[in-house]
Write a structure and sequence with these properties.
Layout: H1 21-35, E1 67-77, E2 81-89, H2 95-108, E3 112-123, E4 126-128, H3 132-144, H4 146-154, E5 161-170, E6 173-181, H5 188-205, E7 212-213, H6 226-231, E8 234-243, H7 245-252, H8 256-273, H9 282-293, H10 300-303, E9 306-312, E10 318-327, H11 339-347, H12 356-380, H13 383-390
Parallel strand pairs: 1-3
Antiparallel strand pairs: 1-2, 3-6, 3-8, 4-6, 4-7, 5-6, 8-10, 9-10
Length: 395
């Protein structure tokens, strides 16, 4: 506690080495002294804190999240092919069991087809003018100077490529939505740096030298948006399968016809609610995978957006697809190289350069497994009972 005469104590730092075992212990001791809480478990970890610069500040310890293994999940993708065991980090009982059941269903029906159909990462600066006419003229200038802008932007990165610049007019403003490919990195910082260089060049070269703000917020970083659902942010990934009615009934207790009837109802409910997602719970599987593999978990805000499309086939089988419109993931950089996160990516054969599309397909297939399991459980009447059995942990 503090008052005006005694300002609050500052978190300890070491200017010579702020990523050592010793300074981490000093910070835990400081917190224990300030709050009375014990950080015994927070202080137990298996890696050298020296690997953490660029990942965290004021390091004091770890949050240990349990990891369960679901699978095998058979995937017949462009990049992910074979049977995979999926690491899922969660504290929600029943989640791993539910996804595991869905993976069994998909595998027994021949496996999931997966496809990365599009990918872009954005930064969206806005330039300001005296009136709408001046803003329109600026937009025309941007179109004729795209090659020069691309050269400046791409000079800041080894792997980022400027694909195109979308333009949006509002009053005397001109929003520019820069779209990049980013290799195996998620790329938000990469495209921010590239776009800043491009905007500074534009400002110096354009005759009026207009002012700009680096983000006009139509990239909707860490927020869901309809523009990303339509135009893609990160990776647009489709997972699809034909569920055999002969497998559905004995394994899940439902038929394709029942699933299709329920889909019509839930589709209407999602529309009525104005939901960003007409599926069941894509955020569950994505979050569990993201925590296990060192993704930026805040990207779940965008990545969970999904569109389910299904068909009841003439023979009673059920075509089920889910499209993740804004999946932001990486297998290189960020938190992916940390100790446990790297192990989980290696478990999937996805660590490092060349693994991002494969990992994206695994994410989409995992989401589809969870959708089939939960939707079937709701219809079969074991949604509540399974949570009562597996999801109750009272201290």
């Amino acid at each position: 506690m503090s008052n005006d005469q005694n300002p609050p104590a500052k978190v300890p730092r070491d200017k010579s080495n702020d990523y050592s075992v010793e300074i981490a212990a000093t910070r835990r001791g400081f917190v224990e002294q300030q709050t009375g809480a014990s950080l015994n478990h927070v202080g137990h970890y298996s890696f050298d804190p020296g690997v953490l610069p660029g990942n965290i500040e004021n390091f004091a310890g770890v949050a240990q999240v349990p990891i369960g293994i679901a699978g095998p999940l058979r995937i017949n993708g462009e990049h992910a092919r074979g049977d995979f065991y999926i690491p899922m980090a969660t504290t929600e009982g029943t989640l791993v069991a539910s996804y595991n059941r869905g993976m069994r269903l998909l595998s027994e029906c021949g496996g999931v087809k997966t496809t990365v159909v599009e990918q872009h990462m954005q930064r969206s600066p806005v330039f300001m003018f005296e009136d709408a006419l001046a803003a329109r003229a600026f937009g025309e200038w941007i179109e004729t100077h795209l090659d020069a802008i691309r050269k400046v932007a791409e000079a800041t990165t080894r792997v980022g490529k400027l694909q195109y610049i979308g333009q949006y007019a509002l009053g005397n403003l001109r929003y520019l939505r820069f779209n990049y490919s980013t290799g195996d990195a998620a790329g938000q910082n990469m495209v921010g740096k590239a776009t800043l260089a491009a905007c500074q060049w534009i400002q110096s070269e354009y005759p009026d030298h207009p002012n700009f703000i680096l983000s006009g917020n139509i990239d909707t970083d860490k927020k869901h948006s309809q523009i990303n659902t339509l135009l893609t942010r990160g990776k647009r990934v489709v997972a699809e399968i034909v569920l055999k009615d002969s497998v559905l009934k004995p394994l899940m207790g439902v038929t394709g016809k029942q699933l299709f009837h329920a889909r019509q109802i839930s589709q209407a409910g999602a529309f009525m609610a104005g939901s960003s997602n007409n599926a069941a719970h894509s955020a569950n599987g994505i979050t569990a995978l993201f925590i296990a593999t060192g993704q930026d978990v805040a990207n779940v805000a965008e990545s969970h957006a999904a569109i389910t499309y299904c068909q009841l086939l003439d023979n009673g089988d059920y075509y089920w697809s889910i499209t993740l419109t804004s999946l932001i993931c990486a297998t290189y950089g960020g938190g992916t190289g940390l100790a446990t996160q790297r192990e989980c990516l290696e478990m999937l054969g996805c660590y490092g350069q060349g693994g991002a599309d494969k990992f994206a397909e695994i994410c989409a297939a995992t989401v589809l497994a969870g959708e089939t399991s939960l939707s079937s459980a709701i219809l079969a009447g074991d949604w509540v009972s399974s949570h009562d059995q597996l999801g109750r942990n009272r201290p």
